[in-house]
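User: Working on a comparison across species. This one is ARMC7 protein from Nothoprocta pentlandii. Can you predict its structure so I can line it up against the others?
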Amino acid sequence: MELGRLEYLQALVTEFQVTDSADAKEQVLANLANFAYDPQNYEHLRRLQVLDLFLDTLGEDSEALVEFAMGGLCNLCLDKANKEYILEANGVESVINCLSSPNEETVMSAVTTLMYLSTPQSRRQTTALPVVECMLRFSLSANRRLSNLATLFLEDYCTPLQVEEARTLSKHTAVGIPLPKD
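Assistant: Here's the predicted structure for ARMC7 protein from Nothoprocta pentlandii:
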């Protein structure tokens, strides 16, 4: 049974790598992200370098591909070995970049992933001042899911001093003012 699972996952990875169809890539990546939810697949997905596939895909132009890759990383980073791999691969920076996505699901997965990736060693990066400022903005969102998740992030992962510093800086910036068009 396990050999069949590995072979199936390998077939998905191969299909993602060889297909020229954008729709097929999205469908395959969505399937891999769903398989990343099952701890029985963690070792297979590590062996097939799916963590690298997800991390690399975060830089794609396709919002759908980024959404599925971010969701897959979010599912995988609950595992200690996967978390360590993502941290060692400098994945936090890529996850932080997804906070500015126009896709709500991508942003939700990015916030959750930052929570899961927070360790005493990574906390300086996962709760850097720009991240805390971003969470403050998200906490004021009309979107209840995003607002609640950002509030939880601020309360559980940030120190009161970090939050206050971000609030003070936010008062002196032009957040929310659109940039002029070329």
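For your comparison, note: Residues 128-174 form one domain.

User: Helpful, thanks.
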